[in-house]
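Forum: Protein Structure Q&A
Topic: Joint prediction for protein chains with partners

I've read a bunch of threads here and the consensus seems to be that you should model interacting components together rather than docking separate models afterwards. I'd like to see that in practice. Below is the full input, 492 residues plus whatever partners are listed. Could one of the regulars post the assembled result?
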Amino acid sequence: MIRKLKHWLLWASLAVALLVTLTQLLQLYGLSGQNRLIGQLLAGQDVGADELATSAPEVRMARAVYLSQHQRYDEALATLNLLLQQAGAEAQAHTRYNLGNLYLRQTMQKAEAGNINEAMPLLGLAKQAYREALTLDSQFWDAKYNLEVAMRLLPEMDRISSGDEQDDLSQKTQLWTTLPGFPRGLP
Amino acid sequence: MTLAAKRLGCGLAWVCVTLLAACSGSSTQALRDFQMQTPRPFGYVIGDTIPQRIVLETRAGMALERNSLPTPGRLNRWLQLNAVTVQELAGSDGKRYQIDLLYQQFYAPLEVKALSIPCFTLRFQQQGQTLEQPVAAWTFTAAPLRELVVRQDQHGEYLRPDQAPPLLDDAVMVRRLYVALTVALGIALRLAWLYGYLPGLPKRSVFKRAQRQLQTLGLPQLPQALAALHTAFNGLHGKPVFLHKLTEFYQSHPEYRSIADELAWFFDYSNRYFFADASIQSQEQDLQKLKAVCRHCREIERGSR
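Posted by a regular:
Agreed with the consensus. Here's the joint model:
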């Protein structure tokens, strides 16, 4: 009886092992397809929306990079916003960094076009995104560099006059009091 | 840049500078011990974290007021407190506290610049009384990452590029595939051995050959059928097997004991057929029984019985 049981157990094990092999082969096939999409997007070729529907977050991130490179900022923003909730601190930091880059590029374009009023809030969003990326990963050097680029775009907002380091929260108040246009020296 | 990065990367390593309480006076007497452990005070860039540790020991009956600790979040426009952890240990008399503060600075200086983490005051409760212990401000220098002259590339001001996603990792799947394949191959080999499919192992397929012969034989060829089964037993045992030597056969092949009755019938029938008087009449059911014996032997041979 035990011999018989052992014999059929052997067959059952073979079936399970073959099933696992088949499953892994299928998964590997799917994975290579996703990697092909990532490579295609990073090489500058778009992929169809139907292929993206069930794709991994990495593929959608590659698409966001592609869209951003091709100045399709609104679509890139929508794609990145969907990725903000994905798992993993590293992936989240990368998403926020790419979001920061997206805002910063738009800021630069608006600033070059002389549209400062629209550039300012975008710059604020860029800084916020970089800061969030750095909070998640303090060793993210690209985020550090680009945050510094963003900070220098409007230096008068971010400089701290010497001897005033600890009182940064009152900077806003000081700013308003020194706004041009206010009459001074009047009674 | 690499050297600088390495140096700055060591930011988390504790280059402990132990500062005694900056403010002395009557309040220090409330504490047995007060140490502030800080890392190196130079070489920070935007986004770096700065760990600080305060180790203190109170006198008996004193307890730290937790809400006197700074709250995690933005402290000012360029400084953020990421985490505050307090470990309470039993001291010799009072309590021993280890307070870990993790700051992160976001200041972008144009040149090396001194910055300060603001001071704060720790409060302790002792029988309704509040005692205070100031924690001094800590000054460090921050350096810029970029040159003063704005670097340009073809798109305008130089920016670090977008972070391309990594290719999906298939290492786990490949490992699982190899393991599953190895297991499947191992089991397949074992089954092939059991079923006598491996070359060079004739003893594993004696009943398989006998069964194949028996399938083609009818009642008129009963002697050949009996002979084929005898050949199989002899081949398996390595020497002739007779009815009176079955015990010896079972000793070397105990798995066949489970069909001892059938084997006894076969050897007895064979004896009677070949050596007894010719009155024995061969019948179809005898041939079928013979085939059943052979089939059962084959099942035992391949391990399924």
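The domain at 84-156 of chain A is CATH 1.25.40 (Serine Threonine Protein Phosphatase 5, Tetratricopeptide repeat).
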